[in-house]
Amino acid sequence: MATRRAETSRESRRLLVEAASGLFAEKGYRQTTVADVADRSGISRGSIPWHFGDKEGLLLAVIEHTFLEMTQSFSERHPAGPDGLAELMEQAEAFARVPTTRLLVSLLADAVEPGSPIHHRYAELHATMRRIFTAWAAQPHVAVRLPDGATPEDFGLVTLSAAVGIYQQWRMAPEGVDLAHAFGALRLFLTAAVSPAGSR
Amino acid sequence: MATRRAETSRESRRLLVEAASGLFAEKGYRQTTVADVADRSGISRGSIPWHFGDKEGLLLAVIEHTFLEMTQSFSERHPAGPDGLAELMEQAEAFARVPTTRLLVSLLADAVEPGSPIHHRYAELHATMRRIFTAWAAQPHVAVRLPDGATPEDFGLVTLSAAVGIYQQWRMAPEGVDLAHAFGALRLFLTAAVSPAGSR
């Protein structure tokens, strides 16, 4: 009986987080009310304080859930060399197409304030993604040589930066920036940048 | 007399735009009221509808002003070859440090909605900046060779993307991302990517 109650509670929580994710992405965090979330989820409004405290608690739960989903879908390890780089670019493109990525931009203005409860989660997500790109560049491979003076961490930073910026331009003008072409172009430049002299 | 009135009107407009820019960047667009803007500018609230219609009109004027300031501070032409690339990176870094750039992220969540009056201005700013980077890559220079299959437009897209993404990571974690180091790293990778084979 206790188990069943726990299951129902987990399921309510899941439905509330799902409804809130959708609403925050569509209407924005500030425009969404707790009543909207209850309506869409079909869960009684009274259970929201019990699960999340307040709307800010709900936002935190949404962000935790979204980031977990995002980082899980992104493999940590990739083969060394050009094949691994191709995989990374494919994953970065697929990542940009996931609907929840939209939520990241919608909440950016809130997240950017140092006092925001989600500020550190964004910084952590960036750090995690940089680490994944860095790990690829740190693997020894005969067909990969970083530019003189550049570290694997620099590769991670530059690659994540380009991916973030491609996504942002595409969100503003999907008719002016083709996502597949953009990640293809990024791959060309990164491949050329890390090709040993004489191999181009 | 007519001239003096026109001057006073221009000056009021300027003061209102300046006050609104500051407030939108600090408090966010939605949290700022027309009364806040009147208070800070010292201009009577009643003149705001006359100048801008409503708060949305004021937002548009702020964006026009900010984008004009930004693109004017960014030179259109840069020398061909590595010196020009160094200049571009210095400008991109200086650009990120301008306080008004902050406003761009604060308003991003509003701007990203296709119905937003400032949506197209963002897409235009991106296009202008891509054009400046593209123009450098399109100049013939013996020390510059784009990767096979890449166009000057691809260079513009990848470079702007990286600059946008560096800025965003820095805004989230200024203690974790050093702006000067990041643009230096970007320069190393771009230089390596466009160096003719054998010259590295």
What are the salient characteristics of this protein?
10 helices, Arc Repressor Mutant, subunit A, homodimer, mainly alpha, 2 domains, 200 residues
Summary, kept brief:
2 copies of one chain form a homodimer. Chain A is an all-alpha fold and 200 residues long.
Detail the topology: elements first, then pairings.
Two copies of one chain form a homodimer.
Chain A: H1 2-27, H2 34-41, H3 47-52, H4 55-73, H5 81-97, H6 99-106, H7 108-111, H8 119-138, H9 152-172, H10 179-193
Helix pairs in contact in A: 1-2, 1-4, 1-6, 4-8, 5-10, 8-9, 9-10
Provide an overview of this structure:
- Two copies of one chain form a homodimer.
- By secondary structure, chain A is mainly alpha-helical.
- The first copy, chain A, folds into two domains: 2-64, Homeodomain-like (Arc Repressor Mutant, subunit A), CATH 1.10.10; 74-193.
- Helix content of chain A is 72%, strand content 0%.
- The first copy, chain A, contains ten helices and no strands.
- Chain A has helices spanning 2-27, 34-41, 47-52, 55-73, 81-97, 99-106, 108-111, 119-138, 152-172, 179-193.
- The longest helix of chain A is centred in the first third of the chain and has 26 residues, at 2-27.
- The relative contact order of chain A is 0.10.
- The model of chain A has no long low-confidence stretch (mean pLDDT 88).
- The interface between A and B is large, with 52 and 52 residues.
